[in-house]
Amino acid sequence: MKTARLMRMFALLSCLLPAAVPLAADELRSAYRSSVATTLSASVGAFDSVLGQALSGYGKVRLNGKGVFLATKASAGAPRMWWALEAREYHGSVEGRKFDMLLGIERPLGERSRLGFATGYGVADLDTGRDIRTQTFSFAPYMETPLTENIGLKAWAALARPDYRLGDSPRSAWRTAAGLNASGAYELRRMNLSGAAGLSMSQQTSSGVGDLSSWQVGKLTATLRTRATLRLERNFRPYFELGYSYGAWVNAGSSGDYETPSLKTGLSWTHKKRSFTLSLNGTQVFDPVQPLVLSTNYSIRF
Q1: pLDDT above 90 for 220
Q2: Which of 29, 74, 179, 206 could form a disulfide with 173 if both were Cys (CB 3.0 to 4.6 A apart)?
Q3: How far apart (Å, rounded) are the C-alpha atoms in residues 252 and 63?
Q4: What letter does residue 129 receive in the DSSP assignment?
């Protein structure tokens, strides 16, 4: 009797184990994919944000909600160095933190053009169903040059080597990304008109997990934006902004696209080297599912 009972228990376990192993492998692959998509988006966002600050003028110190930007003091015709730190927190399906530190050096080319080179190091500790730690080394040239008297062009490209650790299992990848932005501004009697058109792409080829061979995750985004800012008072500037973005993505064989019109209005205040912006996102005019979002941003430059 005991022998027959043991044989039945062994048969039951042998039926359950094959089902449990693929389930665990699926959970591991899902956690890994989520971590790759999150870190890719954050790293590209950090490069785009920091290089945007580096190319927007010669301020020495800037503080905002995401981090800090420091630059050596230099005139528009002299080389300079800069350093930046950005931090992001995640709550929801992805939990954890990501930090990106970038260091750059740039020099003027001609009267209004600049060429620079940046290197970055990022680290992330995320919980996407599994605890995953990531380290990323990046290199990126960037440039700024005028197209006309009122329109300028900014561009950057990056190559990165992210390494992922899932418990005791290391995984490596290669990442490429680039951004291109054209912007212009015109000053009327009581109004400033500005606009921008941007294109960004990112792609990462990652090693497999379990029976998943090497796979790619990538994204292409195009944006258009136009803003009218009223000059009603010296320090206060009410504004109205209309935008549109289109994106296409691919992730391990799956793909799709999306489009997002946006509508914003707000008020900005500047005094010397301090600024405060109050923004109301009314995109629900185009999509009733979208929430009405009120946000603020405070910035200090030294």
Answers
A1: yes
A2: 206
A3: 38
A4: S
- DSSP for 193-261? EEEEEEEEEEEEEE---TT---EEEEEEEEEEEEEEEE-SSSSEEEEEEEEEEEEEEEETTEEEEEEEE
- Residues 290, 114: Cα–Cα separation, whole Å: 40
Angle among Cα 259, 251, 126 to the nearest 5 degrees reads: 100
Count CB neighbours of 293 within 10 A.
12
How do residues 28-79 score in pLDDT, each as one tens digit? Answer: 777 777 888 888 888 888 888 888 888 876 667 887 777 888 988 877 778 8
Residue 165 backbone dihedrals phi, psi, to 5 degrees: -125, 115
CA–CA distance from 141 to each of 54, 64, 160, 242 (Å)?
Answer: 12, 24, 12, 31
pTM for the predicted model, two decimal places: 0.77
C-alpha span between 126 and 39 (Å, rounded): 9
What is the rounded distance in angstroms from the CA atom of residue 152 to the CA atom of residue 202?
A: 23
90: helix, strand or coil: strand
Q: Facing residues of 151 across strands?
A: 184
Q: Which are the contacts of 4, defined by CB distance < 8 A and separation ≥ 6?
A: none
- Reference 122, options 107, 144, 140; nearest CA is 140
Q: Pick the closest to residue 180 from 204, 152, 161 (CA basis).
A: 152
Q: Tell me which residue has tokens 């080179």.
A: 117
Rounded to 5 degrees, φ, ψ at 64 are -145, -175
Q: How far apart are CA 120 and CA 125, in angstroms?
A: 17
Q: Evaluate whether 156 touches 135 at the Cβ level (below 8 Å).
A: no
Q: What angle (nearest 5°) sits at the alpha carbon of residue 119, between those of residues 58 and 95?
A: 100
Give yes or no for residue 18 having a pLDDT over 90.
no
Matching residue, tokens 């999150």: 38
Residue type, 211: D
